[in-house]
Design goal:
Homodimer. The protein is α/β, with parallel strands linked by helices. Strands 6, 7, 8, 9, 10, 11 and 21 form a seven-stranded mixed beta sheet that branches. Helix 11 packs antiparallel against helix 12 and helix 11 packs parallel to helix 15.
Length: 653
């Protein structure tokens, strides 16, 4: 951070009335012994509750989040005015700024207290700010000298310094999905007054849902259940080879399945509402829109408006499916928002897109016996390992899913109304002038998702967003460009768009804001699984990314095909399932990429992801005794490298 123009050398430090900060600071120990690290940390952390206490007024100017005051002090009074912890010669004009505004500062000079350097270390860890001074105003961490003057110029500083600093809530979370609910419940457990604003704008087809966000209602949960329904169909086919005899015709009933799945989702919706109620979190089913600093407007489905204020806000609004922007797309197409509660079987379906959502939906629809075509603009599973992606596509193609490569729709026309009706799709090649037409009962769009950030008044309070994607840039503590506003989940720029990531980041954010925690969300080596008919699990780097980062000559890639025992008697394909690990030769053959294509890939990947967190190496895998017969044991016996060029086909299980 650059120093302010106001940096003018030593400041005249008057001797004020006794400072409650320095008065409470740990006294020197006998014989000049330094304060033990645990005592120092405790002293620093004792400031956090006061910083967020509802009775705290006005502001702070400090080198970190904590407020240096003992618990006894906290129970008697708040510390009034800005709090500054810096050096006697290094306030950069901040103290004078507050003085010019008629605001009294509480100052901790780190070069005039014992262990000042260590205190600054702890505080820089907490706030991610290595310079001094560090400013808090009305329970909000403003930042350093530059940010304080910027806040003054924008009017934010004056707003925070208003006499009436009481807010309706300590924390308002906008968005009732996985990340928002996780953060809300944790903050409530830590004793804070919390509100969740959640409102589902109906899809163009009129679909909406209850509390819980995308994962519970129109994502992970119904997707996995429909994937399971398709796997059961395959299991029925396999069962005859295992001696099961049945004469009646077996068919799939879409309505029975969707009713059961929606009943389960409804129970989860109710469970979330009950959990919030038990933790005294206020839940308001209204659309949140910022109107000014620390103030948000909540509009319910009847158009009634209510205003709320809070000291801190968390944006956790997630994403919604993107549309093509062509004639007929919003009128006649559906997305994953609509599919899982569709009241009728979709029939012959065109899936547009090659994302994991597209391939997962195409996979289970084909598993129900439907005629399914996937229209692909460029590559499958962008962002994933492309060797694995092509193997996923190849397996699906072998099992009845048709692929139209290098085409995009340009117009959707309705031929017949109905449940389902008939739609004509006109598409053109991405590589030439060729056009094609097709008739389908349903067109499912899965071409990506857009962040829900553009219509919530973020520009009114200065929260910056990526204009192209709508995502919100955050630092490594999920803080946005406005100090009291945070973002978690899919709206955060550059973070994995996964439910467990949102849950973890939301929970840890609440603990940092309101509890004695410094822990940040670790976004490295996050495992995931694509639930296509043959599941693909991965953790760490794709092969292409590993080569880009570490260079091909520094990598060793071990791989093999394998044949699950369960597939042998059933007569299913050998040499289809595949496993590979990518090792960094410069770091003891550390496993930096894990990939598996096979049954139950999610279950297998989860365990190895924990091992990768612990620093898994090829030698450790070799030293591990496998569980026989399982698919996972293949990783304990990997011998063939890609560089060797040796054959990896298997002759037995």
């Amino acid at each position: 951070m650059s120093l302010c123009p106001g940096w003018a050398g030593p400041l005249t430090v008057e001797k004020p009335r006794p400072n409650p900060i320095t008065a409470a600071w740990p006294r020197p120990r006998p014989h000049g012994d330094p304060t033990p690290p645990e005592d120092l940390s405790a002293a620093v952390w004792s400031l956090v509750p006061a910083l967020y206490a509802p009775c705290a007024s006005r502001g702070w100017c400090c080198s970190g989040w904590p407020r240096l005051e003992t618990p006894e002090c906290l129970s008697t009074r708040p510390l009034l005015g800005p709090f500054l912890a810096g050096r006697a010669v290094g306030h950069g004009g901040v103290k004078e700024l507050f003085s010019s505004l008629g605001v009294e500062c509480n100052v901790l000079e780190l070069d005039q207290v014992d262990d000042g350097a260590k205190v600054q270390e702890v505080l820089s860890e907490i706030t991610n700010q290595k310079t001094v001074p560090n400013v808090f105003v009305n329970k909000v961490h403003v930042g350093g000298c530059d940010q304080t003057f910027q806040a003054y110029q924008s009017g934010l500083l004056q707003k925070l310094l208003q006499e009436d600093s009481a807010y309706d809530y300590d924390l308002i979370i906008v968005g009732g999905g996985s990340g928002g609910l996780s953060c809300a419940k944790e903050a409530a457990i830590l004793g804070k007054k919390v509100m969740v604003l959640d409102f589902v704008v109906p899809s163009p087809q009129g679909t909406s849902w209850g509390l819980g966000g995308t994962c519970v209602n129109v994502g992970c949960i119904p997707k996995k259940l429909m994937h399971q329904a398709a796997l059961l169909g395959q299991a029925l086919c396999d069962s005859r080879k295992f001696g099961w005899e049945y004469n009646q015709q077996v068919k799939h009933n879409w309505e029975t399945m969707t009713k059961a799945i929606q009943n389960h989702i409804s129970s989860l919706n109710w469970g979330y509402r009950l959990s919030l109620r038990e933790k005294a979190v206020a839940y308001v089913n209204s659309y949140g829109e910022f109107v000014e600093h620390h103030k948000i407007k909540a509009t319910n489905k009847k158009g009634q408006e209510t205003y709320y204020t809070a000291a801190q806000f968390v944006i956790a609004t997630g994403e919604r499916p993107r549309y093509l922007g062509i004639q007929g797309d919003k009128e006649y197409c559906i997305t994953s928002d609509d599919l899982f509660s569709l009241p009728y079987c979709p029939g012959k379906t065109l899936v547009v897109g090659a994302s994991y959502v597209a391939l997962e939906c195409a996979g289970f629809l084909a598993g129900f016996g439907l005629d399914v075509t996937v229209m692909v603009r460029s590559i499958l599973l962008r962002g994933f390992d492309q060797e694995m992606a092509e193997k996923v596509g190849s397996y699906m193609e072998q099992h009845g899913v048709k692929f139209l490569r290098k085409f995009i729709p340009v117009m959707i026309q309705q031929l017949e109304k109905g449940s389902p009706g008939k739609l004509k799709v006109l598409a053109k090649s991405t590589e030439g002038t060729e056009t094609i037409e097709g008739v389908y009962n349903t067109v499912l769009l899965a071409i990506g998702r857009d962040s829900c950030t553009r219509k919530m008044g973020l520009e009114k309070i200065g929260v910056k967003i990526n204009e192209k994607s709508g995502k919100i840039p955050v630092n490594d503590v999920e803080q946005t460009s406005v100090p009291y506003v945070y973002a978690v989940g899919d709206v955060s720029e550059g973070k994995p768009e996964l439910t467990p990531v949102a849950i973890q980041s939301g929970k840890l954010l609440a603990r940092r804001l309101f509890g004695a925690s410094l822990e940040k969300c670790d976004y490295i080596n996050v495992p995931t699984t694509v639930f296509t008919p043959l599941e693909y699990g991965c953790c760490g780097l794709a092969e292409e990314k590993a080569i880009e980062v570490y260079k091909k000559e520094n990598l060793e890639i071990y791989h093999t095909l394998f044949w699950p025992l369960e597939w042998t008697v059933a007569g299913r394909e050998n040499n289809t399932c595949y496993a590979k690990i990518i090792c960094n030769k410069l770091d003891h053959d550390r496993v930096i990429g894990f990939h598996i294509l096979g049954p139950n890939a999610g279950e297998v990947t989860q365990g190895f992801a924990a091992a990768m967190k612990c620093g898994l190496t090829k030698q450790l895998l070799d030293d591990t005794i496998g569980i026989h017969p399982t698919c996972g044991e293949v990783f304990t016996t990997l011998e063939i490298t890609k560089s060797s060029g040796l054959d990896i086909t298997q002759k037995g299980c």
